[in-house]
Amino acid sequence: MFRVPFLVAIALAIAFGGGIWSTLWALEATTGFGAIRLGAWEAFPEAQTAKADPYAKSHRAAAGALLYGSAEGLTFTAVTDETGAPLRTGCSYKIAGHTPPARLWTLYTLQSGKTNRPQDSKLPVALNSRSILRHADGSFEIQVSTDAKPRNWLAVPERGRFRMRLTLLDTPAAGSSGLIDLSMPVIENIGCGHA
Amino acid sequence: MLKVLFAVITGVVGAALLHLVIILSLPYFSEKDAYTRVLAEGDRHVFHRLPDALDRAGLVQNDPFMETSVCAYDISQGPIRVYAGGDVPFWSMAIYDAASNEVFSINDRTAAAGILDVVLATPVQLTVLRKSLPEPITQSILVEMQQADGYVILRTMVPQPSFSTNASTFLSEAVCAPFDWRQRQQF
């Protein structure tokens, strides 16, 4: 005699549980469609516009971040190295190459809810295009590690995984119609543990 | 057994529907979106500088080399003018509507003489303004807004600590306020 209520309960539980879980997962996992992926770097040039897809609009409504306008810049985020393995603080990485054309850029490791200014922490926790050393052809090489490194060193937090953010300021890549050859610096794992 | 399978299929279809409904409607009822957070910063028509740690409005300045100010506007009563100028290596400004869609953005190289001077107005206000442009805004960029409210983000860069004084001056002197736009009209 309880068969029909039981079946209705199963249907409702799957509908509400699955619907809410899948929505939370989708909002957490992705910023939406329309990403530019260059190696490990990912950017969403249209996430702040009215043309953004419903997932991107939902994500930005829930995240409430202040996004960069198309004349301001474009933000690239990396959570993995070139091979797709997550970035871990136990390992050292080398970022080498060129950025797409941009007037200025900044590179830092992302920490939620807090700004890590290099002048406050005494470690080079963030770098920008004016402060780094370059090769004669304008390319650069940055070592990302918890240990001090010669030349360009980006210090990362003590433990856990981390994300890196490269913001290009005043860049034609933000309005890219695919005409510009975009090349991002390569993130390469150069060894784990204290060498 | 078939009935259980049928119930599960119904549940999955319901889950998919619910997923779509939440995704599509979230932007309309979210209380954590950027515009709500900017409003929580304080009064409209004033630039609020964002702190280095998450404030009670839920906003933070993430990039260690940038300084950011936000200003919520409402142009239903009259246009507002955004003005800033100063000796900084980089600045950029973006105007967003209440749904956080980008309406207009500009940086120091795309602005005339590196000075930020933008007037936000509704189409009706713009018609009135264009008939006789008031003296102070003859050089301004006029931006037509389809929606009356939203927010403005003003950023500047501090590539080295020595630039921070200039950046602070630039942001603290920035104006985002209504102005006398119907001075020649007789009532």
Oligomeric state as shown: heterodimer
Strand percentage of chain A lies at 25-35%
Amount of beta strand of chain B: 25-35%
Give start-end ranges of low-pLDDT stretches of chain B. none
Q: Give the number of DSSP strands of chain A.
A: 10
Tally the helices of chain A.
3
What order do the strands of the largest sheet of chain B run in, or round the barrel if closed? 1-2-8-4-5
Record field, number of beta strands of chain B: 9
Chain-averaged pLDDT of chain B: 87
- In this structure, how is the largest beta sheet of chain A organized? 6 strands, antiparallel
User: In which order are the strands of the major sheet of chain A placed?
Assistant: 1-2-3-9-5-6
Shape call of chain B: globular
Order of helices and strands of chain B: HHEEEEEEHEEHE
Termini separation of chain A: 69 Å
Structural class call of chain A reads alpha+beta
Biggest interface: chains and residue counts? Answer: A-B, 62 and 64 residues
Helix content of chain A: 10-25%
Report on the structure:
The complex is a heterodimer of chains A (195) and B (187). Chain A contains 3 helices and 10 strands, in the order H-E-E-H-E-E-E-H-E-E-E-E-E. Chain A is of the alpha+beta class and 195 residues long. The N and C termini of chain A lie far apart (69 Å). The longest helix of chain A has 27 residues, at 3-29. Chain A has helices at residues 3-29, 54-63, 118-121, and strands spanning 36-38, 41-43, 73-78, 91-97, 104-110, 126-128, 140-145, 153-155, 163-169, 186-192. The model of chain A has no long low-confidence stretch (mean pLDDT 83). In chain A, 21% of the residues lie in helices and 27% in strands. A 6-stranded antiparallel β-sheet of chain A has the order 1-2-3-9-5-6, with no helix packed on it. In chain A, strands 8-7-4-10 form a 4-stranded mixed β-sheet, with no helix packed on it. Chain B is α+β, with helices and mostly antiparallel strands and 187 residues long. Helix content of chain B is 29%, strand content 28%. Chain B is built from 4 helices and 9 strands; from the N terminus they run H-H-E-E-E-E-E-E-H-E-E-H-E. Chain B has helices at residues 2-29, 34-40, 123-131, 164-173; strands at residues 48-49, 66-74, 80-84, 91-97, 102-107, 116-121, 141-144, 149-157, 175-178. In chain B, the strands form 2 sheets. Chain B has a 5-stranded antiparallel β-sheet with strand order 1-2-8-4-5, with helices on both faces. The chains are: A alpha+beta (195), B alpha+beta (187). At the A-B interface, helix 1, helix 2, strand 5 and strand 9 of A face helix 1, helix 2, strand 2, strand 4 and strand 5 of B.
